[in-house]
Amino acid sequence: MTAALLQVVVFLAAAAIAAPIGRFLGIGAVLGYLAAGVVIGPFVLGRYYALEDADQVLHLGEFGVVLLLFVIGLELRPVRLWSMRSAIFGLGVAQLVITAILLAGIGLALGLPPSQALFIGLALSLSSTAFALQVMEEQGELTTRHGRLAFSVLLFQDLAAIPLIALVPLFALGVEEPKMDLGSAGLAILTIAGVILVGRFLLSRLYHLVAATGVREAMTASALLTVVGVALIMEAVGLSAALGSFIAGALLADSEYRHQIEADIAPFEGLLLAVFFIAVGMSIDLSVLVAQPWALLAIVAGLLLVKATVLYGLGRWWGLANASARRLGIILSQGGEFAFVLFSVGMFEGVIGRDTASLLTLAVTLSMAATPLLLLIDDVVARALTPAPPDYEIPPEGEQHVIIAGFGRFGQIVARVLRARHIPFTALDASIAQVDFVKRFGAEIYYGDAGRIDILRAAGARKAQAFVLAIDNVDASVRVAEVVRENFPDLPIYARARDRIHVHRLLDLGVTIIERETFLSALELTKQLLRGLGLKPDEATRLITTFKRHDEKRLYDDYKIYTDQEKMRANALSAAVELEELFTKDVQDLGDGDSPASGERRDDRESAG
User: Fold this and answer.
1) For residues 44 and 311, is the Cβ–Cβ distance under 8 A?
2) CA atoms within 13 A on the CB side of 442
3) Where are the alpha helices (DSSP H) in 167-215?
4) Global pTM?
5) I need a surface site. Which of 37, 92, 256, 468 has the fewest CB within 10 A?
6) What pLDDT does 242 receive?
């Protein structure tokens, strides 16, 4: 019992420490878990305590992969797949097929049997979804065009991993005892069809009954029962539990209970996936690194080169610019977590040997570790190759026009209204990337820092009718306001403010026409909310008007003391009480009959009369 508890403590400590350290170092949670597995494995700390067999832990952790595929199934709603069909089933298929063929060809050239070479090629063609998405999020590239294409490729790879895991036994047909014959394959297809038909009609009804009881634990148990039950059925006919769990998730993708199920499953999925990756790390034979260092480096270099080249070519074919296509290739050039799953299952099914699995697993791990370094090198190369932007662009000198400083979401709305009314304007933005992007859509915008007096003069600030300050960054906004107010004191400034402090800093400079960027939209949404809660339209409007008037008064009252935090805090507390009293007085003036609930009752009485 003590030895078992010690192993539990070691695994929990590894899972709790590895992910945060991996994120902090920028290598990702997956690499953190793999590194933790190596540390607590038989080659490092495992020799100092009674270590459980890594294969047994791996089998436990594989249930985390089962749950992961269940969640992937939940996320893949038909509508979402259809909207992304071109990139998913065009670019995604091309990437997988071309990469697998090239890698399999290399394997054949090295003397591998055809089935083994194809299996390894397919496994290595998959990239790391968790790792790539994390890297793109950290780099701010998820919303770029190459980021969206990368997501589509990863989505197809996740889909492709399901049948690949299920069909691993077919790659073992070359061994002495094949794991699956054609008769078994037919039974498997019938079983899949049966699970889909039965699940389509029964699962939603089952969850409706469980949800009606209001017992949260029963909902969690039902979700786990669905996964385990379908997984057992699939394994009984020779298919993988992962395929069964994916089908179960896909059957519930359109269910109204999808989000609840996903929330209930998530803790189990995350913890068991951590166990799986730790177990993979434990099973890595570090002696391979010592015995075959050059072979290992050759595999890593070949994998990165082949995948990056294929993805770069496909990106260019898909219409990406040179830099974006290069970025796409690097982000998805590594091996993925499903390769670990495939190598594990392939070793169990006799497709590849343990030594080969260890070598390839270590190669995939190193390819993941190399990705951040390659992206860093790409950044350096891109900066060296990109010509320096011009000091600024000289806009045409105008008269009786409007200058818009900052051409993001806010400034573009202003510009659209002015253009529709044929009012001339000159737009300035300090981001060359933003300028290039907006110009592609036909907008007239010029690169330049509106905080520079020479650029303002070139933009015709002396003859302008108004200056719209729409810059998002607070410090930059205040700096531009200061320059404009000092050099063009008669030029009216219409300013966008991020928050109350931003308003106060602009007031310091004499700017008086200021709108907080989210204030009016938040008030409008709140008015709709009050109406949805049962208040009459005129009462909702009156409450919002009262709040707006009170908040604006408080905004200017705060301006007198905004440098004193203690006074600001006291003022906020007293203002909250004052607002509550105003609302109470407003309700009392109307009479008790105008509260939401009584208002509904009064409407009912009027209807009945």
Assistant:
1) no
2) 2
3) 182-213
4) 0.55
5) 256
6) 66
For residue 74, which of 250, 244, 256 has the smallest C-alpha distance? 250
Report how far residue 325's alpha carbon sits from residue 323's, in angstroms, rounded to the nearest whole number. Answer: 6
Per-residue model confidence (pLDDT) at position 596: 41
**Cα separations (Å) of 321 from 86, 133, 197, 315, 445?**
19, 21, 45, 8, 22
CB-CB contact of 329 with 311 (8 Å): yes
Phi, psi angles (nearest 5°) of residue 405: -100, 115
Q: Assess whether pLDDT exceeds 60 at residue 52.
A: no
Q: Which of 331, 290, 285 is nearest to 307 (CA)?
A: 331
Query: Do the beta carbons of residue 403 and residue 461 sit within 8 Å?
Result: yes
> Could you count the other beta carbons within 10 Å of the beta carbon of residue 452?
16
Asked whether 130 and 337 are in contact (CB, 8 A), the reply is yes
User: Tokens 């990139």 belong to which residue?
Assistant: 87
What is the phi/psi pair of residue 55, to 5°?
-65, -40
Mean pLDDT of 335-348: 83
CA separation for the pair 495, 488 (Å, rounded): 15
Over residues 123-163, the pLDDT tens digits come to 999 998 766 766 776 677 766 788 888 888 887 887 788 78
Q: How confident is the model at residue 208 (pLDDT cuts 50, 70, 90)?
A: confident
Q: Calculate ∠ Cα 163-166-167, nearest 5°.
A: 85
Q: Which amino acid is at 540?
A: A
Alpha-carbon distance of 321 to 315, in angstroms, equals 8
> Looking at the DSSP assignment, which residues form a beta bridge with residue 162?
none
d(C-alpha 285, C-alpha 358), whole Å: 6
Q: What is the pLDDT of residue 81?
A: 63
Alpha carbons 266 and 262: distance in angstroms, whole number = 6
The residue to which tokens 């190399």 are assigned: 370
Q: Count Cβ atoms below 10 Å from residue 286 Cβ, excluding itself.
A: 14
**Calpha distance 214→205 (Å, rounded):** 15
Collapsing DSSP to helix, strand or coil, 466 comes out as strand
Fill in the DSSP letter of residue 76: -
| Closest residue by Cα to residue 119 from 334, 453, 283, 343 | 343
Q: Residue range 546-552: average pLDDT?
A: 86
Residue 149 and residue 452: Cα distance in Å, rounded?
39
Buried b (16+ CB within 10 A) or exposed e, 118-139: bbbbbbbbbbbbbbbbbbbeee
User: Considering only 120-134, 181-195, 408-422, which range has the smallest mean pLDDT?
Assistant: 181-195
